UniProtKB/TrEMBL annotation:
<keyword id="KW-0808">Transferase</keyword>
<dbReference type="GO" id="GO:0004674">
    <property type="term" value="F:protein serine/threonine kinase activity"/>
</dbReference>
<dbReference type="InterPro" id="IPR000719">
    <property type="entry name" value="Prot_kinase_dom"/>
</dbReference>
<feature type="binding site">
    <location>
        <position position="508"/>
    </location>
    <ligand>
        <name>ATP</name>
    </ligand>
</feature>
<dbReference type="InterPro" id="IPR008271">
    <property type="entry name" value="Ser/Thr_kinase_AS"/>
</dbReference>
<keyword id="KW-0723">Serine/threonine-protein kinase</keyword>
<dbReference type="InterPro" id="IPR001368">
    <property type="entry name" value="TNFR/NGFR_Cys_rich_reg"/>
</dbReference>
<keyword id="KW-0675">Receptor</keyword>
<dbReference type="InterPro" id="IPR001245">
    <property type="entry name" value="Ser-Thr/Tyr_kinase_cat_dom"/>
</dbReference>
<dbReference type="InterPro" id="IPR009091">
    <property type="entry name" value="RCC1/BLIP-II"/>
</dbReference>
<dbReference type="GO" id="GO:0042803">
    <property type="term" value="F:protein homodimerization activity"/>
</dbReference>
<feature type="repeat" description="TNFR-Cys">
    <location>
        <begin position="314"/>
        <end position="369"/>
    </location>
</feature>
<keyword id="KW-1015">Disulfide bond</keyword>
<feature type="domain" description="Protein kinase">
    <location>
        <begin position="480"/>
        <end position="729"/>
    </location>
</feature>
<dbReference type="GO" id="GO:0005524">
    <property type="term" value="F:ATP binding"/>
</dbReference>
<keyword id="KW-0732">Signal</keyword>
<dbReference type="Pfam" id="PF07714">
    <property type="entry name" value="PK_Tyr_Ser-Thr"/>
</dbReference>
């Protein structure tokens, strides 16, 4: 029983209590199930619950307001799964098995933490499921015993006795062979034919029974010498949350490569082959495939969930009361429906690899984990595997690197001034007005893009990435309100922001799906790469924020929007010299990613909406695919060339890459045959006045045709395209 639970069997699904403060229940199903079944699971209308427990094909819970038992299946909420005689009985604990349910009598919110047990059978009917009083799970002996916790499996229920030890009953209980020991348990979990428990004294796990699933016996031996706080079981595996760092350990028949390595969890649940948990950093749902032989897959909803059960009274030793203010929702004061309830979660004492606990667990907060790169004193040297000499070397290395960076910036700055003055000295007699002799060179621009500067604008390096506070970015974006939204993509949302110092920036906020599929280590690696990307034709990173599980990136603001906006979105049309210059600058940005970065970076999503226009109408490449690491970089760079060829066709024709209103809808299928037939002039955009000389545009069409060839080996490199485009820009000056 917990804040998250799973249903076993063919129609498996998960349910969890949300973090809205109302204790509403959200459910989600297997993506491999048929559409109607999957949608019905997500649409189940379940009343608010205090706790959940999944069985085989159904789930039960304890109602928030009354402590009554309530059960439902994948088709929806129903009262038929609780016999009439038990409908108005209050329960403090509930456990669902294969074909039965047992529950401990007593109010869920009572200070009394034990009671007698009622059990009933779940039966299959012509319309689905029904219920009846059970004779298989009733005996005079069991009815006279008080239990604190119970779990149920295939033909048995086991309970943690008030006086200590475990007692099992039911037709298959004798198969478990549980000895008469006075151990007390923090948590219990069961599979069809086995039971495991976490010892209160040591946190170690004991298991009993067998694990013959029909495909061979599976080892029941849990990890030795490791302390845990809770556990969950599937068809052929167990998983548990470690006490020290809240990481996950699994045993049995399990796909170890899929287990999250860099995230801590406060609650977990398992169906036959899928594990889901609630992450401690951000309360986001995370699911992974536990059984390597299964083809199932599940995609949890993007909602925050309760990290534990709401209970009366104060938290005990080794626990902290979860503070709702950590979620930064002004109107949310508690995750529980009543103010006298609290969520008690186990304290962590350690952190995952690469982090150290910078503060210990308190009554109202868990320990805080900080990256080892920020380790500054001897208290964290041992955890981060540093000694005083290594730490001193680390600081000297950082100082040395900082001196190199500062020296390089000073030398580069002086070179820019010298080159700029030489450029001005030998400039033709035609007068140009420059707003500054220091920094980037730029001509006085008109508001419209009709006047094209002949010099490519060079943006100054914004320097080292700044670390922003979450509160600072919330204020800058008006609380991430919709009217500040600039756009959205697979990564998340992009907002316009005005910082306290008056700077206008763009803030990219990761959505829950991105956070789920990236851990802190991957985010740090991405930041290292983003901070090293500095080019006048790439949107440069200014800073970031990684508080409270958020992933926020702060970029230079591109005030003239995207190339897509101007070609297809009704913005001001672009003249031909400017279109050629945009093509050249975008190619130079891609060339920088492909050839000057080590290792090379493939963009993997080149399109007109990812080419932004700065204040000087200069083209900047954005949103290159750091989150898409998999694949062959060489092939991906050739794919970049293909997609850039599509952008060139859009620039030439003004037509979308794929337009359902046109036949054929694909711009490649429409334009390439005309270009090959020598009719490239037919695709030139007629919404812009035709130039006197169309030769540069015809050459651009030939270049686009080469870039979109089906054989990747026949495509030019982006460097070759950048060089050719530079020549076309020079020719285009006479257009």
């Amino acid at each position: 029983m917990g804040p998250i639970s799973a249903v076993f069997g063919q129609n498996d699904f998960f349910c969890a209590i949300d973090a809205s403060g109302k204790q509403d229940v959200i459910c989600w199903g297997n993506k491999d199930t048929n559409t109607s079944s999957s949608s019905s699971v997500s649409a189940i209308n379940v009343p608010p619950m205090a706790a959940l427990s999944g069985g085989y094909g159904f789930m039960c819970g304890i109602l928030v307001n009354t402590s009554y038992a309530s059960c439902w299946n994948s088709m929806g909420y129903t009262s038929d799964l609780v016999p009439q005689v038990y409908l108005t009985t209050s329960y403090s604990y509930i456990s669902s098995g294969k074909e039965h349910v047992c529950a401990i009598r007593g109010s869920y919110y009572s200070d009394i933490d034990s009671g007698s047990v009622d059990c009933w059978d779940i039966v299959v009917t012509s319309t689905g499921f029904g219920s009846k009083q059970s004779g298989l799970y009733y005996s005079q002996e069991i009815s006279s015993v008080n239990f604190k916790k119970i779990v149920s499996g295939d033909g048995f229920t086991c309970g943690n006795l008030e006086v200590g030890g475990i007692k099992c009953w039911g037709p298959n209980a004798s198969n478990l062979r549980i000895p008469n020991e006075p151990d007390r348990f923090l948590a219990l979990a069961s599979s069809k034919n086995s039971v495991c428990g976490v010892l209160e004294s040591s946190g170690e796990i004991k298991c009993w029974g067998s694990y013959d699933s029909g495909s061979g016996s599976v080892s029941l031996n849990p990890p030795v010498g490791t302390s845990f706080v809770t556990l969950a079981t599937g068809d052929q595996h167990f998983c548990a949350i470690r006490r020290d760092d809240h990481g996950i350990d699994c045993w049995g028949k399990v796909n170890s490569s899929s287990i999250p390595k860099d995230s801590g969890f406060l609650a977990i649940a398992s169906s036959d082959s899928i594990m889901c948990g609630i992450r401690e950093d951000d309360l986001v749902l995370d699911c992974w495939l536990a059984n390597a032989s299964s083809s199932s897959d599940i995609d949890p909803p993007l909602q925050l969930c309760s990290p534990g059960l709401c209970t009366p009274g104060s938290c005990g030793p080794g626990q902290f009361s979860f503070n709702a203010s950590l979620l930064h929702e002004p109107d949310l004061t508690s995750l529980c429906v009543r103010k006298d309830l609290s969520i008690c979660s186990p304290c962590g004492s350690n952190c995952s690899s690469g982090f150290f606990p910078s503060s210990s667990c308190t009554q109202n907060a868990d320990r805080v984990c900080t990256a080892c790169s920020l380790c500054q004193n001897s208290s964290c040297w041992e955890v981060c595997k540093l000694n005083s000499h290594q730490h001193q070397d680390h600081r000297l290395h950082r100082l040395h690197r900082l001196m190199i960076i500062i020296g390089s910036l000073v030398i580069g700055f002086l070179l820019i001034i010298i080159l700029l003055c030489i450029f001005l000295r030998f400039l033709p007699t035609k007068k140009r007005q420059f707003s500054s002799c220091i920094g980037k060179t730029m001509e006085k621009e008109t508001d419209a893009p009709d006047v094209v500067p002949s010099a490519v604008s060079v943006a100054p390096c914004p320097g080292l990435a700044q670390v922003f506070r979450l509160s600072e970015l919330k204020d800058a974006t008006n609380g991430f309100k919709e009217f500040n939204e600039l756009g959205r993509g697979s990564y998340g949302f992009v907002y316009k922001a005005v910082l306290a110092d008056g700077r206008q920036v763009a803030v990219k906020r990761a959505n829950a799906a991105t956070i789920i599929h990236t851990n802190s280590r991957e985010f740090e690696m991405e930041l290292e790469i983003l901070c090293s990307v500095r080019h006048s034709n790439v949107v440069n990173l200014l800073g970031y924020c990684a508080e409270m599980g958020e992933r926020l990136l702060v970029y230079e603001l591109m005030p003239h929007g995207t190339l897509y906006d101007h070609l297809h979105g009704g913005f001001s049309p672009l003249n031909w010299p400017l279109r050629l210059r945009i093509a050249m600058q975008a190619a130079k940005g891609l060339e920088f990613l492909h050839t000057e970065m080590n290792p090379p970076i493939a963009h993997r999503d080149v399109k007109s909406s990812n080419i932004l226009l700065d204040a000087d109408w200069g083209a900047r490449i954005s949103d290159f695919g750091l989150l898409r690491h998999d694949g062959d970089v060489i092939l991906d760079m050739r794919d970049d060339v293909y997609n850039f060829g599509i952008v060139l066709l859009e620039l030439l024709s003004g037509r979308k890459a794929n337009d359902r209103d046109c036949t054929p809808s694909s711009i490649v299928e429409w334009a390439v045959p005309l270009i090959k037939q020598g009719k490239a002039a037919a695709i030139i955009d007629r919404c812009v006045s035709l130039p006197r000389v169309v030769v540069p545009l015809l050459k651009l069409a030939d270049m686009a045709e080469a870039a979109v060839r089906e054989n990747p080996c026949e495509r030019p490199s982006v460097g070759e395209m950048a060089m050719l485009l530079e020549q076309l820009v020079k020719e285009g000056l006479i257009l």
